[in-house]
Design goal:
The chain is an alpha/beta fold. The protein contains 9 helices and 8 strands. The protein has one domain: 3-Layer(aba) Sandwich (Rossmann fold), CATH 3.40.50. Strands 2-6-1-7-8 form a 5-stranded parallel sheet, with helices on both faces. The C terminus is likely disordered.
Amino acid sequence: MAGALRGVVALDGPSGTGKTTVARMLAAELGAGFLDTGAMYRVVALSALREGVDLADADAVAALARRVQVGIGTDPGQSRVLLDGDDVAEQIRTEPVNVAVSPVSAVPEVRRLLVAGQREIIASVLGSAGGIVVDGRDIGTVVAPDAPLKVFLTASAEVRAARRTAQDSAAGRQADTEAVLASVRRRDELDTTRATSPLRAADDAEVLDTSELTIDQVVAALSELAKRRGLLGGEFVEAGR
């Protein structure tokens, strides 16, 4: 182990940059907690699809978000995602959810509810484990703006589409590269132009292009950044000091 993580590492970036995979691996390597905030929005999106909620009806989506029970694990060694107590870790990765999650996550009330829950989880894990790696699209800008290390992962749309196609195929889900590329570009457009918490790098974030990097290389780079910030064991220093 490179050293126990102290504090929050915020990983942001668009779909297909490997955020969740590297966040989970980094957390495991550094003995920290792990939070996939995107999975929380996906749970609400899956529930909306199951209940036939009109995704264009913000009030209906918000009402659903207020009553649905979202459960998310913070152990990097296992994937635990619950919808009203049922394990939906596989179901939230399907293409219908990929399409539905952007309009769902654009609803201000949905974001308010889930961000509040995310902050509670982060505080709880910091109190017990001392460190947590959090990935999403607004972690460094909204959820944890005081995180001592913020990283914005990027990669070309083509590389990200190829990665997601390979991931879907490996999981036994039907995947077509051109369709996935179109989906990636559509998600980018929706996420970067939404009125509430649009996808963008925090002003003080480190930008890391993963296009030519392996997963292990990205994890190593993130671990080195955490080390440089003084986050591995002992006391950590605030960003900018």
